[in-house]
Structure formats: C-alpha cells, structure tokens
Design goal:
By secondary structure, this protein is of the alpha+beta class. Helix content is 38%, strand content 25%.
C-alpha cells in the first residue's frame, strides 16, 4: 500500500494528520517486518514505549496506546514508515507472534461436535447473563444521575465541563449499555449547540432517557435496542424475507469518533419505508447498503419488530439483489398534515425515534426559502443546506414533490421530483 492508501484507513482527518507527523518522528525503535506483519516500538508520554503491530493479511493494527480510535495514529504511522521505506526483514518479537496466533485461532475452523456446541451454548448464556447484569447496573446509575440533574436544574447544564459529561458516558460504556452512552452524547450535543430552544430539546431528551430507565426491564426489542443490545445480521438474514422494488432515497452519515455509520431510508413499493444501517470501525467510511437513487429489485430481511405500539420504520438487512434500474414515479402524501399523521404509529412503536422519513406532493418554497408550503398553505421548516440549493436549481421555483428526514424541528431534504415524475436524489 502506498502512503495515500494507508491514510485512507484513518478514522478521521485528525488521526491521519497526527500519523503523518508521527511517521517522521525519531521516537521509533525495534521496527521490522515479516511476510505476515509489521512491528515497532514508539515512544509515548510514559516511560514504556507503545507496542505497535500490523497484520499484513487485512491491515488490522494492534497498539498498546490508550486511544479509542481504530486504527490509531501509531498503527497508521508504522505503515506510513514502511510505505516510504520498507522496514528491515527480521524475526517477529514474541508479542507480535502471540497476537497473530490469537487472530488465527479466532479464524480457525469451528468445532461442530455436540460437546463443543453445548460448551458454546453455556458460554453464550453466561455472557448474556453477565451483560444483562452489567446493563442493569448502568441503568441504576443513570437513574441516580437523572435525579441529580433534575435536582440541580437544566439551566445549569451549559456550565458542566467535558469531564462531567465524559464520566457518565464512560460509565454507560463500562456497563455495556452503548445505547445509553449514545443518548447521553446527544443530550450533551444539544446543550453544547446552545441554540434558542436547547433547554426544551434537552428536557425532551432527558425525559426520553427517564422513560427508557423506567422500561429497561421490559421484554421489548425496541427497548433492548435502545439500551444497546443488538441482533446478529446473520441471524436476521436467516429469518423473514421481503421481496420488493426498493427506492433508496434518503441517507445520513454520522461519526462518533469510534464508529462511522450510514443510515439509508428505502421506500418499498409494497412495504413502505424501511431503514438499512451500515457501520465501520475504522478505515474508509461505509458505503450505502444499496445503490442510492435507483430502483432496486431485491430481498431485504427485517430485524425483530417487538414495538410498543404500531409498526415503526423497520430496520432491515440487505439480502439478494436481483437488479437495478432507473427509478419510477413515486406518489407522496397530498399535504403535510397527512404526512405527519402517518408518523403516529411509528412514534407509538418507538418513542425515542428522532428521525422520520417524510414526503409531500406539490410543495413550494417560501420567498425566504425557510419553509416548504403544501397545496393548502401549511408549511414545515426546511434545512438550509446544499440539498436545498440543488432542489431550487432543479425545480426553478415551480411546485415539486419532496422527501426528506424530519427531526421535529426541520426537514432535511433528500429527494425531489416534478409532480408525477421519478424522484431525483439531492441529499
């Protein structure tokens, strides 16, 4: 791999920049390579240098530094040094050999004997019990934290420093309740943004956390998902299958510093809205699960529903794709009132849902381009971004059909169409 390809593995620009500087540092020692790996020692802030190694079979990196980003700057810097000038060939140190052996053991053929299956089942049950107990502890800790926040008052949240927010988030991560950690980070982001309605939004999200704490012991798939429990995609693909013609119209990319994610909302001619999600723990950002902006013939597999009320927008895993073709016309609700009414069942199924796919026929922009008005003159605020600019250019001020993501405050435009024509992706 050349230097450019190595830097493409960086989880973000800051890591790439740091790795570039570190690659030229004089703090490296004990570097070498074999047919299987690269390795080296890099001087850090402590007395013991960091142990860095890279498996050349898939470019997986291992480092003893405390970074929570993968690959870290040391793993990238080692690869950059090798790309610029090949490291000396040598015998891998024991710690490199042990790491490679552990990786090979994980990839080794699975013992399928009845005894092995029973051992794995017992181990899985034990892991699940330990995870459930850890999450219960995290929920109890969050309940106490919420009580303290209410006692001190929401108005004091902007004065809280980063360490205060980090402490409760780290506690949820330690409790293996990643969903709660993510929800807390969203509260922190709302407070940090400081927009005029921050207090209202923070109160709403804190209320959602309180509801989740109260329902944490409920045996519902939605609650478990919000706490951070997940279902293996292989298990989902082995279940129900929905064959349809799918139009991938809306997408949203996020990056929490550890994991990059892309969510893609698809309209099924027979099944309506579904959402597919793809994650990447490092390296290049993930691609959309399906080709965006075309009509796809294929099979999708729904995750467990288990809603609290009616059906929410189901999450799906992508199965077999038969073919792709130009998108055909798509009918949108006649007005915003009808479009918003369709969200009631989804909110009943998942009260913590923050993004809703929404469409409306024959809308037009107000003169200040801040609202989209339907045929009856009812308007929704629209986000001012490049997608809106592209929509204006495509429609030239004429009424158009619109689809976007509604977060309760504004619409993030994602696709537009001339009335009766096929949608064109803009976001």
């Amino acid at each position: 791999m050349d230097a450019q390809a190595v830097l493409a593995l960086a989880p973000d620009g800051q890591v790439a920049s740091s790795a570039t500087r570190l690659a030229g540092s004089s703090g490296w020692s004990g570097s070498g390579r074999s047919a299987e790996a690269l390795w080296g020692l890099c001087k850090g802030s402590g007395r013991t240098p960091y142990r860095v190694c890279v498996d050349l079979s898939d470019r997986a990196a291992k480092c003893s530094c405390p970074s929570r980003k993968f690959p870290c700057k040391h793993g990238l810097a080692l690869q950059l040094r090798h790309a610029r000038e090949p490291l000396a060939v040598g015998d891998a140190p024991d710690w490199v050999v042990e790491w490679l052996d552990r990786r090979q053991q994980v990839a080794a053929p699975v013992d399928t004997s009845p005894e092995a299956e029973e051992r794995r089942a017992r181990a899985k049950e034990k892991t699940a019990r330990n995870r459930a107990e850890a999450v219960r502890g995290g929920v109890a800790g969050l309940a106490d934290w919420l009580t303290d926040v209410v006692g001190a008052g929401i108005a004091g949240l902007p004065a809280r420093d980063a360490a205060w927010w980090h402490a409760i988030g780290a506690r949820m991560v330690d409790a293996q309740a990643k969903g709660l950690a993510t929800a807390l980070e969203e509260v922190r982001s709302v407070v940090a943004a400081g927009h005029p309605t921050w207090a209202h939004e923070a109160a709403d999200r804190l209320g959602g956390l309180h509801l989740l704490v109260r329902l944490a012991d409920a045996d519902h798939d939605v609650v478990r998902r919000r706490l951070g429990f997940s279902v293996a995609e292989e298990e989902v693909r082995a279940g129900a299958a929905w064959s349809d013609r799918w139009l991938p119209l809306l997408k949203l990319e996020t990056d929490d510093g550890l994991v990059r994610s892309i969510r893609q909302w698809l309209w099924g001619r027979e099944h309506g809205w579904v959402v597919a999600v793809r994650h990447a723990g490092g390296g290049p950002r993930p691609l959309p699960p399906l080709a965006h902006g075309v009509e796809v013939r294929g099979v999708l597999h729904p995750y467990p529903a288990g809603g609290l009320g009616g059906p929410a927008t189901p999450r799906v895993a992508v199965g077999d794709v038969v073919g792709e073709e130009a998108a055909g016309p798509l009918t949108a609700p006649p007005g915003w009132r009808e479009a918003l009414a369709d969200l009631a069942d989804g909110l009943a199924a998942d009260p913590w849902l923050r993004l809703h796919p929404l469409g409306c026929a024959g809308v037009r922009l107000t003169a200040d381009t801040r609202h989209l008005l339907d045929a009856a003159g009812r308007g929704l605020p629209v986000r001012d971004d490049p997608a809106l600019d592209q929509a204006v250019a495509l429609t030239a001020g004429e009424p158009f059909d619109a689809w976007g993501l509604w977060n309760g405050r504004e619409l993030r435009l994602g696709a537009v169409a001339e009335p009766g024509r096929a949608p064109e992706v803009v976001g």
